[in-house]
Amino acid sequence: MTNTLHRYSEHYALEPAPNPAPVRDDYIVFAMASRGINDDDLVEKYRGFLHLALKHKPVNIGDATKGGALRPRQDMNPTAHWRRGHQPDPEQVIAGIEGHTTVAAVFDNYAAMEAFVEELKAADLGISVNISAPMAEAERCCRDAGIVRHSVEYSLGFRGRVDKLPDAKTLELSTMCGHGMLSADFVRKMVDWVKENRRTPAEAARYMARFCTCGVFNVSRAERIIRKACALQR
Fold it and tell me: Which residues contact 173 (CB under 8 A, 6 or more apart)?
């Protein structure tokens, strides 16, 4: 099971558009080990996984127990929002790994993901690797890398009182944190700030990324969605 399985796109709309375009900028590769089975030298395996990922320019990496390359800091007060930097710190993620967790790398293009998976196969780290991506793209990646797929999970979409859900653009942004740490109100506030020219799309995306506790928020896709949302609302 992966919390990246339910990232909203127009494919999940109650009344989807005919032939919606595939999502081409959101690919997550993550690794996990099982206690007592393949967790020997686990910290070094996870660090090796993320170091390999950095060679392919991921838009985010994360440790599920501590956060991503952009994360909150306890030594800042609220006024820091107006002057803080937005540079990700991937080395902090790697250095902070201490034991059992899951680690992930997020890419905004197929070629980078596929090249990373090929290197992972050659490295043979001995831990489980999952790809969270559109089904056809994940299949193609396995085939190109010479991997036989072990299993597959499907998302059945959204069920229940869907009339209570936020609008589609808000869902696209908030569900990129699969643990639900990005509130709809906060997402709408960030989009409003961009509309008011108080923040750029890149800054707003990075604010949101800090709330994703496992580091799988895709800042590149978020920028694209914010730009589109602002264009629609203006």
Answer: 182, 187, 190, 191, 208, 222, 225, 226
